[in-house]
Design a protein that fits this description.
The longest helix has 17 residues. With about 325 residues, this protein is an alpha/beta fold. It is globular, with a radius of gyration of 19 Å. The protein is about 30% helix and about 25% strand.
């Protein structure tokens, strides 16, 4: 018994020293479950909230619009205090089974110092969104809770909720994990790797460097990183890429998924486009890289489970991303 006690103390000391939290997969949703609607970033249009909630009802869920989800304060979805209060309530209330953000934009990072990581741990539940919501996904992963980088209210209602992307999101919420097949790209780097899937909007992710909310700080045996961005010049993305190298993050990576990059000037500095520039540097890494993965600010934007262990296989016939459910920890 004494040896077991010492072993447990040692394990807790290691976890405490590394700040590492074991990853937990939130429980699947059932018909009638409540989904909180929050606006942690920019202010949404009323029509977006109305139509998105209507679609969630058609899916069999009960959307609950938080008090300030449709507020507006200097372009944000309310003041920092209002947005924090909405998200804190949604995270803490045990009757809320998932949280869907109304939209991205700017401002989610403002909430992190007022939330803390413990807020994500108490009642693990799915957090859904992308773009600026990357900041919240990163914090959730650091807290040890998986989250869904995926469509928000506008996207699920725009196609009537029956498009492949929306159907995939709905199935994930119901507990079905997808396997993605991606067409080959000339810049693909072949190989197979397993690791914890993290990433999102590249500029938002890099903005968290050195903070307690940076999921790239995880000391897992390996990370599979996915990146996307919009309205960022190739020179800025180049700088962000080298920041990962300076921080030693590239050494932690087992594989990379390169998603959509939109609204940027090209050609630039002799590169035809963003993929050309990224390939110039990523080709020197001995790991699988998949270009053209359907995620980001352009359709299709398939949902990805952040913090989930995956297997990435890249070959001449294309790429495959497979979730490994047998290695996940699920909440009751």
């Amino acid at each position: 018994m004494w040896r077991c006690f010492l072993w447990l103390c040692g394990l807790l000391a290691v976890i405490s020293a590394s700040g590492q939290q074991p990853m937990v997969m939130p429980p699947a949703l059932k018909a009638g479950d409540r989904i909180a609607i929050v606006s942690p970033s920019s202010s949404p249009e009323a029509k977006t909230v109305e139509e998105g909630c209507q679609m969630l009802r058609q899916w069999g869920y009960e959307p609950v619009v938080t008090p300030h989800a449709q507020a507006e304060y200097h372009g944000f979805g309310g003041t920092i205090a209002q947005r924090t209060a909405d998200l804190q309530w949604a995270l803490a209330d045990s009757t809320i089974k998932a949280i869907m953000c109304s939209r991205g934009g700017d401002g989610a990072v403002q909430l992190l110092p007022h939330l803390g990581l413990e807020a994500f741990r108490r009642n693990p539940k799915w957090l859904i969104g992308f773009s600026d919501i990357t900041a919240l996904h990163s914090a959730s992963v650091q807290a040890g809770v998986m989250s869904i980088h995926g469509s928000m209210l506008h996207a699920i209602s725009a196609q009537g909720g029956t498009d492949t992307v929306s159907v995939t999101l709905r199935r994930i919420l119901e507990g079905q994990l997808p396997t993605y097949q991606v067409y080959p790209h000339p810049f693909d780097q072949p190989g197979t790797a397993e690791g914890v899937l993290v990433g999102g909007n590249f500029s938002v992710l890099c903005g968290l460097a050195g903070s307690p909310y940076d999921c790239l700080n995880r000391a897992d045996e390996g990370l599979i990183l996915f990146i996307e961005d919009t309205d960022e010049a190739m020179t800025k993305v180049d700088r962000m890429l080298h920041l990962l190298e300076v921080r030693g993050v590239l050494k932690k990576l087992k594989g990379i998924l390169v998603g959509h990059f939109t609204k940027y000037k090209h050609p630039e500095n002799g590169f035809d486009d963003m993929y050309h520039m990224l390939h110039e540097y990523l080709q020197h890494l001995s790991l699988p890289v998949c270009y053209g993965f359907p995620v980001g600010h352009r359709r299709p934007n398939f949902p990805l489970i952040e913090g989930c262990r995956v297997r990435l296989s890249v070959g001449a016939g294309g790429s495959q991303l497979e979730y490994l459910p047998s290695q996940q920890t699920q909440t009751p």
